[in-house]
Amino acid sequence: MARLTGKVALVAGGGADGPAKPGEKLSIGNGRATAIVCAREGARVMVADRKLELAEETAAAIRAEGGDARAIATDVSVEDDCRRAVEATVREFGALHLLVNNVGIALGGRLLETSTAHFDTMVDVNVRGHFFMMKYAVPEMAKAGGGAIVNVSSLAAHRSNQAISYETTKAALLGLSRSAANSHARDNIRVNTILPGLINSSMVRRLIGDREAQVAPRIPMGRQGTPWEIASAIVFLLSDDASYITGTELIVDGGLSVR
Q1: What is the mean pLDDT of residues 220-238?
Q2: Taken in order 36, 136, 233, 18, is the CA torsion positive or negative?
């Protein structure tokens, strides 16, 4: 049986804003791959993204495979948008069991290169957005008898790449997740964090282009990861295969962090 059969999932950041990889018909990022794999595993999926057309593309791809999906425009830096996304999910599907917070942006650089405005925007999107989504999702999960949340951080939470606001916000997600996990374990709600390493995603290609040749030699496995590999790790943590795992951090980086 598919691991998420009977579950309803809300995937924030479920679009993909960037060029497709050569050979791909549809641009794939971590959020889009996660939404599609959740559906393949039996979940009904609400795809949320700041750009409705990107969320609609993901939902259409799921429906084309025979899955059940809807789309909603959601700016996670706006609290009411997060509340509406949760409410729409429950209204459309009758419950909410699973939440993936995949939204993240990268602005600024080193300490003296980063403006206050850029730093504040990073906090609003990369931290407050996750807080808002969990704040409204957790009560609905409790009503449904429990569930699971995965917040998408980054290996940058542990290792510096000279991007102070990105590293700060991604590290903050670790504490946010641990606290929520501790607070709601008795509600049968698990909260975990994924830390991707260097991934060949649509966002990376949009921001810096194809970096495979540049970064592959640094990675023990000799290549970047794919969004599908991140999605597989996320779905594992959402599923009952991880029923006794909460408050943990799963690094998915091809061995980069052990060098």
Answers
A1: 96
A2: positive
The secondary element (H helix, E strand) that includes residue 71 is: strand 69-73
What are 122's two structure tokens? 């990073």
- Number of neighbours of residue 97 by Cβ within 10 angstroms: 24
With vertex at residue 74, the alpha carbon angle to CA 68 and CA 75, rounded to the nearest 5 degrees, is 155
Q: Alpha-carbon distance 56 to 82, whole Å?
A: 17
The string of DSSP letters for 189-231 reads EEEEEEEE-SB--HHHHHHH---HHHHGGGSTTSS-B-HHHHH
The whole-angstrom separation of Cα 185 and Cα 170 is 23
Interval 63-100: pLDDT, tens: 999 999 999 999 999 999 999 999 999 999 999 999 99
Q: How far apart are CA 193 and CA 175, in angstroms?
A: 10
In this predicted structure, the answer to whether residue 157 has a pLDDT above a threshold of 70 is yes
Structure token pair of residue 192: 């975990």
Q: Is 18 helix (H, G, I), strand (E, B) or coil?
A: coil
Amino acid letter, 175: G
* Mean confidence (pLDDT) of the chain: 94
> Catalytic: which of 37, 93, 166, 235?
166
| Banded pLDDT at 151 (limits 50, 70, 90) | very high
pLDDT band with cut points at 50, 70 and 90 for residue 104: confident
Three-state secondary structure along 113-147?
Answer: HCCHHHHHHHHHHHHHHHHHHHHHHHHHHHHCCCE
Catalytic-residue membership of 166: yes
- What is the side-by-side order of every strand in the sheet holding 249-252? 69-73, 44-49, 8-12, 98-101, 147-152, 189-196, 249-252
